[in-house]
Amino acid sequence: MFQSFKQFVPSLVCLSCDGCCRFKETESIWQPKMSAEEINQAERNGLARQILTKAVSVKGGPLQTTKCGDGHCCTFFNHDDNTCRIYEHRPFECQLYPFLLTKRDSQIYLAVHLLCPFVQEHYDTPVYAQYVQYLKEFFQQTQTQLFLQRNLVLAGDYSVFQNEIEYISEIRLTVG
After folding, report:
1. Does position 50 have pLDDT exceeding 70, yes or no?
2. Fewest beta carbons within 10 Å, which of 101, 163, 170, 175?
3. Number of neighbouring beta carbons within 10 Å of residue 130
4. Pairwise CA distance, residues 46 & 6, whole Å
5. Average pLDDT over every residue of 154-175
6. What is the pLDDT of residue 142?
7. pLDDT of residue 43
């Protein structure tokens, strides 16, 4: 969706972590969602419709999981080599993580998942502060605002994980 979106966690670090893409249950709030717009974009970029249809049962819904060890993994996660089968076309939520779009009191907020090892390692550093500023500016851009308005499903309700997330700023949708 956003060709030049900067990811906080470097790809090699992201793909070597054993946290993301794995879930205790078949259905989890942590499963990324893929909006209808993202699915259509992935198809235009060459990802086969049949792959997407199996992975997302409802457009705008969470990616499906498959049995993986004692838990479940994202359907696109390759457990053998710890990679993502659609990394170049992964959903915006995956690109944004460990930062999250979350709902609270009918507002959308930018938050960070504090359990991410990379966040823990870099939390009080200039790199973290600079990235947070980058995100604040990114979410004020007209293109981003319009995308969010069209894809509100990407904001999840993480309220049961209050001890794991930190709210950074409210995202005010001012375009439209």
Report:
1. no
2. 163
3. 11
4. 22
5. 89
6. 92
7. 81
* SS3 assignment for 98-163: CEEEEEECCEEEEEEECCCHHHHHHCCCHHHHHHHHHHHHHCCCHHHHHHHHHCHHHCECCHHHCC
pLDDT on residue 20: 85
What pTM was estimated for this model as a whole?
A: 0.89
For the chain, domain boundaries: 11-171
Tokens of 78: 């390759």
Q: How far is Cα 93 from Cα 155, in angstroms, rounded to an integer?
A: 9
CA 111 – CA 100 distance, rounded (Å)? 5
Q: Provide the token pair at 96.
A: 């944004």
Rounded distance between C-alpha atoms, residue 134 and residue 143, angstroms: 15
Q: What is the torsional sign of CA 137, 141, 4, 120?
A: positive
Q: Determine the Cα–Cα distance for residues 137 and 157; give it in Å rounded to an integer.
A: 23
Closest CA to 112 of 44, 166, 43: 166
* Rounded (5°) CA angle 80-33-8: 70
pLDDT digits (tens, 9 = 90+) for 111-158: 999 999 999 999 999 999 999 999 999 999 999 999 999 998 899 999
